[in-house]
Structures are given as C-alpha cells and as structure tokens.
Description:
Structural class: alpha/beta
CATH topology: Rossmann fold
Helix content: 25-40%
Strand order of the largest sheet: 6-7-8-3-9-10
CATH superfamily: P-loop containing nucleotide triphosphate hydrolases
Number of strands: 10
Radius of gyration: 20 Å
Number of helices: 12
Distance between the termini: 31 Å
Shape: globular
CATH class: Alpha Beta
Largest sheet: 6 strands, mixed
Number of domains: 1
Amino acid sequence: MIVCHDIHKHFGGFHAVDGVSLTIPAGAITGLIGPNGAGKSTLFNVIAGVHRPTSGTVTMAGEDITGLPPHQLFARGLLRTFQIAHEFSSMSVLENLMMVPGGQSGETLWNTWVHRRRIEREEEGLRAKAQDVLEFLGLAHVREERAGNLSGGQKKLLELGRTMMVDARIVFLDEVGAGVNRTLLRTIGDAIVRLNKERGYTFCVIEHDMDFIARLCDSVIVMAQGKVLAQGAPADIVRDERVIEAYLGTGLKNKVLGKGAGEAMIGVAAP
Length: 271
C-alpha cells in the first residue's frame, strides 16, 4: 500500500528522518515504535503531506504521492490523526462527523439559495451515516453532547469515526492511546481491529503502549535516531537485542527473554 524509499527530512542541521525505507502492506495493521525523538511523527507527517521530504519518495498503491498536500491525499483515502485530538469543540459529536465529507452542496452560497432540497437530502444521508458510525464506536449515547466535553478517550474514538465518514484506504494513527484509560483503549483497539477485518482498512499505528501494539499489529517497525532499526512480528521485535538496547531498556533484557512476547510487553513505555 505505502512504500517509502530513502526518505530524508532535515530541519536545518537536524536529520529527523535519515534514510528510511519501509513498506506498509495493504490490509494489515502495522505498528511504528521507538524512543521519543526517533522520527516517527515526522515520518508520518512526510507521508501524510504535512512536510515535504528533503529527499526520497513515497508511493501509494504504486502511485507517487511524494509531497502532495494533505487535502489531495485525503481525497485519495489517506488519513492521519494526531496525538492531540482536533475536534470542533462547540459542535455536537454528530455534527463533528457530518462536517467531514468534502464537496457538500451546502458549502456554496448559490446552492443554499436554489438547491435547498438537494442540501436537505445530503444532510439526511450524512446524518444517517454518522449515526451508524457512532453506533459502531459505542458513542451513540453522546451524539448530542458538545465534542469539547468528551473525555480524552472519547475524543480519540471520535477521530477514528471521522475516518469512517469517507472512503479511507489507509489511516495513520499517532499515539491513539495517549491519555486514554485502559477500558477505552481496549474499545479503541477493538474498533481498529473490526475496521481492519470487516471493512478492509489498512492502519499504521504509532504507540508507546507495547501491550496494545502486540495485541493489534501484524508487524512492527522500530525507529531510532531517524532510521529503521528493525522490522518484524511483535514476538520477534520484543526479543531483538538491538530494540531492547535502544528502546525497551537494558534492564528488561533478561525479563523479555524469559517471558512470552505479550506478557513481556505489558506496561512497557518509552524511556
């Protein structure tokens, strides 16, 4: 689905991403992990068009998308969420979802004058779709609540819901578990898995909660100092001595080697 070839992103003399080449396969959930400052979010921003790479290429389904702006990538089905949720706080949860699809008839003044019935039909369809999304995510009970009043975890679910309002092909989730309690994190994880299995979504997930990564991901990419350090199945990654040294911590080395991957990963966070 996504292929990055020799991606570099420099900010002055700082090489935030330093020669990254990787593949995110279609139909999979891929984890992206590494210590703070490893270049994970910068790489997301390059792929999603927020930053243009200093050099290198990004392709999506064989098409060169290097440097395309976010709105063009959005139209191609590439979506990105952020560590801090970006909701329209004074609007209802339902209205937040209905705002997502582009090209709505009501966006032009002319249509509001002469095509009111068309606008009404579109809004009815969007409302029905938004309600289905809220049911899917378990947020139907807060549909009329102002989005700004939601908990951190509910806001992350709402961001996930936005991707369901359009024809998303691949979704990049940046620290979806940050500030989220364990119960809601499990709900978010279940929704991601269902979207992947039932609707064919491809995901790439940055997350420091290694138990969450181990439960969700088919494969994991590890970055350190702007480079790809390792890539493989979660059970293999957690036993990789380079990853233990760079990310999991030398003090965990013996514990990791003596436990199952899932058990060893519980509660591990970046230093």
